[in-house]
Design a protein that fits this description.
Two copies of one chain form a homodimer. Chain A is mostly helical. Helices cover 59% and strands 0% of the residues of chain A. Chain A is elongated and about 65 Å long. The relative contact order of chain A is 0.11. At the A-B interface, helix 6, helix 8 and helix 9 of A face helix 6, helix 8 and helix 9 of B. Chain A binds a DNA duplex through helix 2.
Chain lengths: 209, 209
DNA sequence: GCGCAATGTCAACACCGTTAACATTGATGT
DNA sequence: ACATCAATGTTAACGGTGTTGACATTGCGC
């Protein structure tokens, strides 16, 4: 309808979908946070000022890009288990937590720049907005996984706030150390995930594993 | 001897200790990573080019500043317990881990910009250098604390690499979530530290608490 | 098919990191 | 004491950056 069939810019005065193109080009850059608007624009055969028809500022573009990244992360979480389907049994509940941890680690591994953008100073506001939107977010999965551990009897008591804090901290921390190239956190994602999840389970009171 | 008594720059052609002054001014800035050399220099009543007599580049200055920050963090760790004095008993060994966690959290709380500088993309090389220097570093304390838990009988087996990874991840992650303004990690430092350490202990196999 | 809002261009501003050429200075050796 | 020289500062300039205002082109809705 409105979108020209070509997304690449030929000699046309109007690009067609510059907003999306800018975000995609930025996401494709190896060093997201250090790209320049001018470089980005000229790479798309467009003037730098054109970007300001779509974003208030460079920061606004990065914030929007962070939102895209949060969406990607959430999608990875969604691929690990269905938020609305309760875990069938203890084994499945534990597997969900494990898959979640591995997804977290893998995302950090594959997109470290995006990871830093999401959890760096820029996107604090972006994350806050994503949270108060009400819709299920990436923040819904970890609590759900813990709840599943309870309903399947892996843990005896409903997960306390401290359990969520602890679990989240551990998974997030392992990913952060990985992005930071800290030696202790390198190695196979599956291995790190297993080491960490095993101890998380013990930490929140899952006995007899 | 060589240093003029005044550290503030009066009309003198030579500043006296510009290198230190630049680092201090940068550390005092509210948003370390986004300061400009020119602003920094002009704030000290000095030309921007003067900074290049002391640092190869802006990045080099930030790297050096990160090294300073790592030193400060290490000092906080050193204040929690003596690396060379073994823990007297189980209670003391546990208290050491707790104080370490709280120190970690407090540092992140009080100097979030420095925290980001240290663990961000810039200082990867800096941290690597600090590690291979051989001297005791901030990376020595967590392993030592875990070892203390073993020697005092809190845990039955010597700490495995996975135990270090797990403990480090959790503490680091809690601090990172805090810096990132994630709601679950806010609240009193002592409380967050206690919640997290309690579960870490369980996670690494400390029973009967 | 006219007109207007959307979307682009161009030119300019102030600022930035960085460098080269030059200036001042404090310490050092005789 | 004094010349010398390395250390440390200055100024001027380069190319690059984010951002803005004035103007140009275009496609969609009446």
């Amino acid at each position: 309808m409105k979108r020209p069939s070509e997304s690449s810019a030929t000699g046309r005065y109007h690009h067609g979908d510059l907003r999306r193109a800018l975000l995609e080009a930025a996401a494709a850059a190896p060093d997201i946070e250090h790209i320049s608007l001018r470089e980005l624009a000229s790479g798309l055969g467009v003037s730098a000022a054109a970007a300001y028809r779509h974003f208030d500022s460079r920061e606004a573009l990065l914030a929007e890009l962070a939102a895209v990244g949060i969406g990607q992360l959430q999608q990875r979480f969604a691929d690990t288990f269905d938020l609305h389907a309760p875990a069938a049994d203890a084994q499945e509940a534990i597997a969900r937590l494990y898959r979640l941890a591995v997804a977290y680690l893998r995302f950090a591994d594959e997109q470290p720049a995006m990871w830093r953008l999401i959890f760096g100073a820029y996107a604090v506001q972006t994350r806050a907005n994503a949270l108060q939107s009400g819709a299920p977010t990436s923040y819904s999965y970890l609590p759900a996984a813990l709840q599943g551990l309870y309903t399947t009897g892996v843990i005896a008591a409903p997960p306390a706030p401290g359990d969520l804090l602890f679990t989240w901290s551990t998974v997030h921390g392992a990913a952060a150390l990985r992005v930071g190239n800290v030696a202790a956190a390198q190695g196979e994602v599956e291995h790190v995930g297993a080491e960490v999840v095993q101890r998380i389970l013990r930490g929140i009171g899952a006995y007899g594993l």
